[in-house]
Amino acid sequence: MNSTFMRTPIGLLAIRAIDNAISHIAFVDRQDAPAIQHPLLVQAREQLQQYFAGQRQAFSLPLAATGTEFQHQVWQALARIPYAQTASYGQIAESIGKPKAVRAVGAANGRNPLAIVVPCHRIIGKDGKLTGYAGGLERKAWLLALEQG
């Protein structure tokens, strides 16, 4: 697995690739591996830098997240949430044809291995309030504010 790291306005991101696809993007406390200058990791860093600068709304990276079929359905639904918009767990459950699977959708959202690129930060509670985020609610609020301009 190849890894690189990047400082962002809201903390350190670890970006990992397997073969020719990005497999993980997550906020980390410290660099836990040597940084590799793999072309795909360089591309991912560039696109994330553009996102943080307000210059990119969608990503064009090959992705290879590991998860169950259900998790992949949820992550694909997350990827369809437009930039600067939000959705609830219930809306995602409806969109994948499993309207009663709200809690399972929440669990799958929490296991998203591709922060920002698969925009789990765009999920809010049905009451419009911020709900959990693996990177922390402060980061989630910051990302949503960035997208709102």
TrEMBL record:
SUPFAM superfamilies found in the cross-reference section: Methylated DNA-protein cysteine methyltransferase domain, Methylated DNA-protein cysteine methyltransferase, C-terminal domain
Catalysed reaction equations from the record: a 6-O-methyl-2'-deoxyguanosine in DNA + L-cysteinyl-[protein] = S-methyl-L-cysteinyl-[protein] + a 2'-deoxyguanosine in DNA; a 4-O-methyl-thymidine in DNA + L-cysteinyl-[protein] = a thymidine in DNA + S-methyl-L-cysteinyl-[protein]
Keyword hit for Ribonucleoprotein: no
Pfam families found in the cross-reference section: DNA_binding_1, Methyltransf_1N
Group of enzyme by EC: transferase
Stretches assigned to the Methylated-DNA-[protein]-cysteine S-methyltransferase DNA binding domain: 69-148
Domain Methylguanine DNA methyltransferase ribonuclease-like stretches: 4-64
Active-site residues, as the UniProt record annotates them: 120 (nucleophile)
CDD domains: ATase
Entry keyword Chaperone: no
EC number assigned by the record: 2.1.1.63
Record GO terms (molecular function): methyltransferase activity
PANTHER family, A to Z: METHYLATED-DNA--PROTEIN-CYSTEINE METHYLTRANSFERASE (PTHR10815)
Purpose: Involved in the cellular defense against the biological effects of O6-methylguanine (O6-MeG) and O4-methylthymine (O4-MeT) in DNA. Repairs the methylated nucleobase in DNA by stoichiometrically transferring the methyl group to a cysteine residue in the enzyme. This is a suicide reaction: the enzyme is irreversibly inactivated.
Protein family per UniProt: Belongs to the MGMT family.
HAMAP family referenced in this protein's UniProt entry, alphabetically: OGT (MF_00772)
Protein name, per record: Methylated-DNA--protein-cysteine methyltransferase
Species name: Lacimicrobium alkaliphilum
